[in-house]
Amino acid sequence: MAMKRILVIDDEASITRTMKVNLERTGVYTVRTENQAAHALAAAREFKPDLILLDVMMPDKDGGEVAGEIKADPDLQHVPIVFLTAIVSRKETGGEYLESGGQTFIAKPADLNSLIQCIEENTRP
Amino acid sequence: MEQRMITGKRFDPVVTTLTALLVVVVGWVDYLTGEELSVSILYLIPVCLCTWRIGRRCGLVTAWASAMAWLAADLAASERQGHPLVPYWNGAVLLGTFWVVVYLLSALKVLQTSLEDKVEQRTSDLRSEIAERTRAEDELTQVNRELVQSREKLVEALSDLQKSHADLKATQLQLIEAAKLESVGRLAAGMAHEVKNPLMTLTMVADYLAQVIPAGEPDAAPMLQDMRDAIQRANRVISELLEFSRPGDLTLAPEDFHAIVDRALSLVKLETTRHHIDVVRRFSEALPAVPVDKNKVEQVLVNVFMNAIQVMPQGGTLTVRTSVTPAGEDGSGALMAEIDDTGPGIPDAYLTKVFEPFFTTKPTGQGTGLGLCVARQIIQLHGGTIELRNRAEGGARVTIVLHPNQRNRPWQ
Q1: What residues contact B47, with CB distance under 8 A and at least 6 apart?
Q2: Which residues make beta-bridge pairs with A52?
Q3: pLDDT digits (tens, 9 = 90+) for B38-52
Q4: Is any Cβ of chain A less than 8 angstroms from the Cβ of B209?
């Protein structure tokens, strides 16, 4: 079975690094990380991910803008995007993650199981 | 007036004729009676009449005519034996006497006329004064009426002003509250970003360590659990702060309030059982249909129940009572829920602070001090009130009132 390709875009290097290690240790995912929002689109074009985990608040460009660029690309528009957000509480998401206006959000801090569950549900054929 | 009388401008033909007739009659009587009977005094009748009624000049003429009549009668009535000029002398004396009388009488008349004039003038003045006073009184009455009307308008305006002032004050308080919330919201969002990102890293590291630490390491599992608990605790504080600063919109719908209470009680059932707490429901049968956001109200109730449970660690009774308050201005009663515990109550000094953010009486790490604050915010969003006070028989009581017509929802 082909490994799922996950692109993690977050300005916090410690987050992308630890997520990459944990996800890749499962043996199910190939993970590429990107810490600069400005390079996110290029990284997505090059990596062709099955799912993108995208931070909402980044210093150079916010997650919504990056998502807009990705969705505007014909090759990437089908790729599901899960937003990682620090300013939505667990209570507000009502569980591990929240789907709102066609967007999926996952609240930080999320543990590995939540991440995997979210990735699986959003990459199901 | 005096001049008119003296110069005979008030000529009266009746009096003049009567005077002339009297002079003639008295002269004739004088002639007939002769020297034996003196009737000279009777000449004063026409003289006085003419002087009083017509004037001085006419009086003098009458006096002269009377003197002449007397002289004629005297000359005709007897034959003189004395000096021939005596009758003329007597006539002249009589004429002088008559003239004195005329002058005195006319002076009296002038005096009377003057007095009459003065009285008339004074009467006229008094009438004018009375008219003026009446007019002034009317004006005063009018002004008084206007004043009363003005006063009524002022009272009305004052009442409107007081109402506007109260409204403004309430709006100002709401604005201050909203501004405070906005700044707390900005602060909370910033803090959430800064704290939750490191927590994410820590969570990932904990997950990693859980996989890589050899299973034989005895302390690893509890230490990792401590780490996860610490992460959750920090996350809970930040999440509640976020929630406090961002009350959010309500999804209002008429709900069965008792069903919400039951659901909230079921959520804390584990805790009530663990602490041997009896739950007593005293539900009113006819609660008004109050539109509420059931999830938010459930959150409030869970918060209040958890506080009650935590103050009764050795057991006690948690009583939930619902009722309808007497009808208010809009004619409908409000829904009232009272939650009683049998704990130690709240120290009086803390009663005013329990709804303030970050105020807690719980041990460090067990309370964020935001639970009741968020609860109050949610109830206020519903246009209701929440109060906490000590019961006379011991323990504390939380009273929640929700109105069927929510007209005062500060953040909407």
Answers
A1: B59, B62, B63, B66, B98, B101, B102
A2: A7, A81
A3: 788 889 999 999 888
A4: no
- A60, A32 Cβ separation under 8 angstroms: no
* CB-closest option in A14, A84, A112 to B201: A14
Calpha distance B275→B294 (Å, rounded): 27
- What is the rounded CA–CA span in Å between residue B186 and residue B33? 140
Asked if the C-beta of A92 comes within 8 angstroms of chain B's C-beta atoms, the answer is: yes
pTM of the predicted model as reported, rounded to 2 decimal places: 0.50
CA distances from A87 to A45, B77, B289 (A): 29, 152, 35
- Which of A22, A86, A108 lies at the smallest CB-CB distance from B207? A22
Instruction: Please give the Cα distance from B378 to B120 (Å, whole number).
Output: 89
Q: Could you give the ipTM of this predicted complex? A: 0.87
For every residue of A64-87, DSSP letters joined together read HHHHHHHHHSTTTTTS-EEEEESS
Identify whether the C-beta of residue A29 lies closer than 8 Å to the C-beta of residue A4. yes
Q: What's the CATH number where A78 sits?
A: 3.40.50.2300
Distance CA(B109)–CA(B101), nearest Å, equals 12
Q: What angle do CA B390, B396, B402 make, to 5 degrees?
A: 100
Helix (H) or strand (E) holding B60: helix B56-77
Q: Are B309 and B274 in contact (CB under 8 A)?
A: no
Q: Which amino acid is at B181?
A: L
Q: Is the dihedral of CA B149, B155, B158, B160 positive or negative?
A: negative
Is any Cβ of chain B less than 8 angstroms from the Cβ of A82?
Answer: no
> Roughly what angle, to the nearest 10 degrees, separates helices B220-245 and B86-212?
160
Contact B114, B2 (CB under 8 A): yes
| Counted domains in chain A | 1
B210-238 per-position pLDDT tens digit? 999 888 888 888 899 999 989 988 888 88
